[in-house]
TrEMBL record:
Names of required cofactors: [2Fe-2S] cluster; [4Fe-4S] cluster
Compartment(s): Membrane
Example of a GO cellular component annotation carried by this entry: membrane
Reported function: Ferredoxins are iron-sulfur proteins that transfer electrons in a wide variety of metabolic reactions.
Annotated 4Fe-4S ferredoxin-type domain residues: 136-166, 179-208
Coiled-coil regions, chain positions: none
Any one GO MF annotation of this record: metal ion binding
Main location: membrane
Alphabetized InterPro entries for the sequence: 2Fe-2S_ferredoxin-like_sf, 2Fe-2S_ferredoxin-type, 4Fe4S_Fe-S-bd, 4Fe4S_Fe_S_CS, NADH_UbQ_OxRdtase_75kDa_su_CS, NADH_UbQ_OxRdtase_Gsu_4Fe4S-bd, PSI_iron-sulfur_center
Keyword Aminoacyl-tRNA synthetase recorded: no
UniProt name for this protein: Ferredoxin
SUPFAM superfamilies in the cross-refs: 2Fe-2S ferredoxin-like (SSF54292), 4Fe-4S ferredoxins (SSF54862)
PANTHER family per the UniProt record, alphabetical: HYDROGENASE SUBUNIT, PHOTOSYSTEM I IRON-SULFUR CENTER-RELATED
Length: 216
């Protein structure tokens, strides 16, 4: 067992427990976007960063294990400012059309941005120009993807269909259909797991409600 202190609260957890999971044990909230326990713990979004006494670096709580005697501050000024900056950068590459988005009110990014009191845009918009096909039952909104990689992980590790992958590199990197296939030509089985695990509205099912009503 490992003893540590998080926001002034002492906690004893099994070895290899992450800071995020240890914080949950004592009711301390740390925001996350890309994290999904047992599936996606890569620290890509950097929204869960926390400050550890004695270390100048900020640590991603989702994949940093607690150590004996560690003292963690989840809501220090340094952690809050870094967290806010990271979310603002994500928002600069996200089409913020919340009122018409299918995930409005049930969006992890919207929730985190509200928690951080982000009221405007601090960085210039840099939205991808690519448009997804509307003919396939699964619709991909490129300008809403936050590159959390959840869809890749669930498709590879759970469904084993390997539809999604990271393409390009650096600032141009994004998530798209593996090997540049069209989604219609991919091995997608339309299981819906990528939609369920997407924290925003980047993946959604096609709405055929009007067609059904017209046919009745």
């Amino acid at each position: 067992m490992v003893n540590c202190t998080i926001d002034g609260k002492k906690v004893c957890v099994p070895e290899h427990t992450t800071i995020l999971e240890a914080a949950k044990e004592i009711g301390v909230y740390i925001p996350t976007l890309c994290y999904f326990k047992g599936l996606n713990e890569i620290g890509a979004c950097r929204v869960c960063v926390v400050e550890v006494e004695g270390d100048q670096r900020l640590h991603a709580a989702c994949n940093s294990p607690v150590l004996e005697g560690m003292v963690v501050h989840t809501n220090s000024k340094k952690a809050r400012e870094a967290r806010k900056c990271n979310v603002e950068l994500i928002l600069s590459q996200h089409n913020v059309t919340c009122t018409t988005c299918v995930r409005s009110g049930n969006c992890a990014l919207q929730h985190v941005a509200n928690d951080l009191n982000i009221m405007g845009e601090s960085f210039p918009k840099d939205l991808p120009k690519q448009k997804g096909s509307k003919s396939f039952p699964l619709i991909r909104e490129y300008d809403k993807c936050i590159k959390c990689m959840r869809c890749i992980q669930v498709c590879d590790k759970i469904q084993a269909t390997h539809v999604w992958d990271v393409i390009n590199s650096g600032g141009k990197s994004t998530v798209d259909v593996r090997d540049f296939y069209r989604l219609e030509d991919s091995p997608c089985s339309l299981c819906g797991q990528c939609i369920t695990h997407c924290p925003v509205g980047a993946l959604r099912e096609r709405d055929d409600t009007d067609k059904v009503l017209d046919a009745l």
